[in-house]
Amino acid sequence: MGVRRFSRILPVTKPPVHDPRRTLTLRDVSEASGVSEMTVSRVLRNRGDVSVATRERVLEAARSLGYVPNKIAGALASQRVNLVGVVIPSLSNMVFPEVLAGISETLEDTGLQPVVGVTNYSPEREETVIYEMLSWRPSGMIVAGLEHTEAARAMLAQAGIPIVEIMDIDGEAVDSAVGISHRRAGRQMAEAIIASGYRRIAFLGTMMPHDHRARKRLQGFEEALAKAGLTLADQEFYSGGSALLKGREMTEAVLKRSPDIDFLYYSNDMIGAGGLLYCLAQGIDVPGKIGLAGFNGVELLDGLPRRLATMDACRLEIGRRAAEIIAGKHAGTIGGEVIELFPTLQAGDTIRRA
Amino acid sequence: MGVRRFSRILPVTKPPVHDPRRTLTLRDVSEASGVSEMTVSRVLRNRGDVSVATRERVLEAARSLGYVPNKIAGALASQRVNLVGVVIPSLSNMVFPEVLAGISETLEDTGLQPVVGVTNYSPEREETVIYEMLSWRPSGMIVAGLEHTEAARAMLAQAGIPIVEIMDIDGEAVDSAVGISHRRAGRQMAEAIIASGYRRIAFLGTMMPHDHRARKRLQGFEEALAKAGLTLADQEFYSGGSALLKGREMTEAVLKRSPDIDFLYYSNDMIGAGGLLYCLAQGIDVPGKIGLAGFNGVELLDGLPRRLATMDACRLEIGRRAAEIIAGKHAGTIGGEVIELFPTLQAGDTIRRA
DNA sequence: GTGAAAGCGCTAACAC
DNA sequence: GTGTTAGCGCTTTCAC
């Protein structure tokens, strides 16, 4: 962004607010209310029987002092931490916020709180994030993907808490897993495309060595092509920048280079949307002359002039199921669960009816 | 999403992995290495002088055991927590992930870690999130917006740590603040629009009673209109659903209802983009017959057939500055800073040149 | 360069 | 129903 910015520091109009004074403790509430620390603790946690009178006195004291319990001390003493670590590669891909939404929603009435860590698709960064999270002794961990460093896998396996790897099931899980088979998804899309009569098929995707799920989709896609005696007619990769714009640019590049292409398979909906806008602007007959498909089923597609073919990645459901496993809602099981979800192919308006 | 899904639970192929055994402690490392707990602690924190030999022995023991330090105990003992609470209204509005990126980037080499909480634009939820976060005794808090419940303000003020309210500076900050004046932003956009000769101006926005910043922009916008002797010719509000789609629908509704409208001001870029796509599809002369403008400067706009006029909200910069304040990089100040950033108006291709 | 003792602020377990 | 005691696993401080 080559945008110039100006800033000024306004004069301080009031005294500094955060004098690092000692924060309040149970003892303070105890003294203010004339009730023992232990009973104060009970009131504040709604544990055990406390007379209404004492309870009121304690709550009043706590409220008027502005007491906020120290969970660090509480967690150390009780050996319980109401935190669930969630490790994802990115927040700018809307897929992950949606998974998070599913997790939060399900965790809401369990007293558990998700804590998010972002890895930017870097295995080393992931290892660090996992280490940092485990050092807070969370009640469970939800980690995107099945591919981790040796050390990360070892730490997770050692942690003694439920671990759920999400999004993908094509591989070996540390403990539990909830996701779809991306390889199968790629295969299915290829089969649908071939069945609709397309033959000169190109792939356009991200150049991210660590996006294993995109890689597996492409792999499955090529497997199905091979079974039909086909190979990819062209490929184009990108990294960084506005996905929508990259989609336009890559599409233009591919169509200029290989004018006889009749199908464009994108590794995600955002670049697919860019490609769709480009084709429409060029007056290309979609899906007559050229068909298009993406992956993810993102909400954005609803607003486009034509509905891009895609596959729903079951994001919300994945989040929910993973959270349920952590919350121990699957009675009778103690880890080791693998839940496969099955995405639906939405043909939209960019694949010819077979 | 009316998508059917199927799932099955695959048979467990391996023994459950997370038997909740006791996790390792410093003592375990101490015993395994034959070095005192204290020295082990020093090695693991790189504190004080330790002989190379002992250091090696300790690290080897820790590594082979797979020891992960317990930060809960560490934090309690040292009274230091390397966490920074970040409270934002939403993750699905790309604005906030970008602010987060700025925060993470700046915090990276300070040893501080951001922990994110999401409020869904609910003041009560915000109060809860703030309470929960403060109970972990973070080193600082970054909170979106200046409007909070009484209790939330009180807690923040009491916490004894640096508090930075971000995004907005039109109001009273608890401690420090970094943001732009949304009222001024609305005013500026209105002035630009009027200067370009538009007169029949409509507003299209979210119906979110707690989106104070959108409200302030509209307010500033109307002020500037009034100064020019104008009032809004029409308005339309929405909530929920795909913003891009809503943008199309709202635009259609407004243009049908008020055919003489010559400008559409959107409260965010996403609905603005939907409106733009609608106008282009209808063959409306943009910006000749109708002008359009949004707010935020989102990356997505780069991929659209035409560049929507917008104002950059300085998201990355806001994140960076806020993090710098928390990290204590503004030497000589102890809170109470207010940093105003000045967004740039990007006229794009959807406002007539004056 | 290394170790021993005390205690961070809470809660589990038990007494009364 | 309420209080007392003993830690939780580290780090601080001070001694050696």
UniProtKB/TrEMBL annotation, chains A, B:
What would be an example GO MF term here?
A: DNA-binding transcription factor activity
Cell membrane among keywords:
no
Keyword annotations for this protein, in alphabetical order, are: DNA-binding, Transcription, Transcription regulation
Q: Which SMART domains match?
A: HTH_LACI (SM00354)
The signal peptide, as residue positions, is none
| InterPro entries given in the database record | HTH_LacI, Lambda_DNA-bd_dom_sf, Peripla_BP/Lac1_sug-bd_dom, Peripla_BP_I
Q: State one Pfam family annotation.
A: LacI
The question of whether DNA-binding is a record keyword is answered with yes
Q: Which residues form the HTH lacI-type domain?
A: 24-78
SUPFAM superfamilies on file: lambda repressor-like DNA-binding domains (SSF47413), Periplasmic binding protein-like I (SSF53822)
Q: What is this protein called?
A: LacI family DNA-binding transcriptional regulator
